[in-house]
Amino acid sequence: MFLKRIFQQTLNVQERIALPKAELVASIEKNRRSLELIDNWIDDVAFLQSVFNYGVPDFIKSELNKPIDNQPTYSDYIVAIANKHFDSVSYFEIGVSVGKNFFQMINGINNASFTGLDIEEINPIIEKKLQLKDIVEWDRMEGSIKKNKSSLRKYVSNGKEVKYLSADVWDQNSWSKLSGNKFNIIFSDALHTPEAILFEFEMLVKFNLLSEKFIIIWDDLVGSMKDSFYKIIKRYDKAFKVKDVYLLNVNGWVGQHEQAHTIGILSNFEV
């Protein structure tokens, strides 16, 4: 415990990202326009057939469709960072849920491809906005609570490639389907357990999925989740040359309708 505290104290953990105001405002405006394209994120039939109700708690379900104000959300920060720091983006989201953040990324990030991973099937609400090009299926992991076969769907949206991997996050075989990708922006918002985020990072390393320049964002980083965040930095700092570490208190997918919460960010470049 003492050594862990010493390690955490030596980290330069920042609590504010110095993004130019104009760039953040542009991202906010772009994301709010994206959200206006969908008035209802809930597909009742899909929810009945789901594993975890698409990760939507009952207390959030009533807030999901409400308009959000112009206070920055994590979605706004991700879009601003993407468009500022990358000429080309390969975006990976772990835990897509109904796709509210994923949809904003697709519409908000220029010159990009997108991959989402979730145990649920893709939300029909956002699938209607995409053009399906291909689908491959395989048996789900033995013992998984997933109801259907695992699958990888490929779409196009305004010339951008979009992939959706419907699989159990613990299924290494499904992770292997992503081999050959090099992601430079990763957003983790799946199981919200310390074991899960460690496993996710191990899969990124095992299947060589990290680009030479990358940034990773974790949602809801509190308690033991934060301990796993520090473990990742300590374990992989030398290999990946971690440059910036942030713990930010920001609004999430329902904006001001939910209390702001902590996200963790690490990158191997200066944000």
From TrEMBL:
InterPro entries xrefs: SAM-dependent_MTases_sf
Check the record and name the SUPFAM superfamilies matching this protein. Answer: S-adenosyl-L-methionine-dependent methyltransferases
List the protein's name.
Methyltransferase
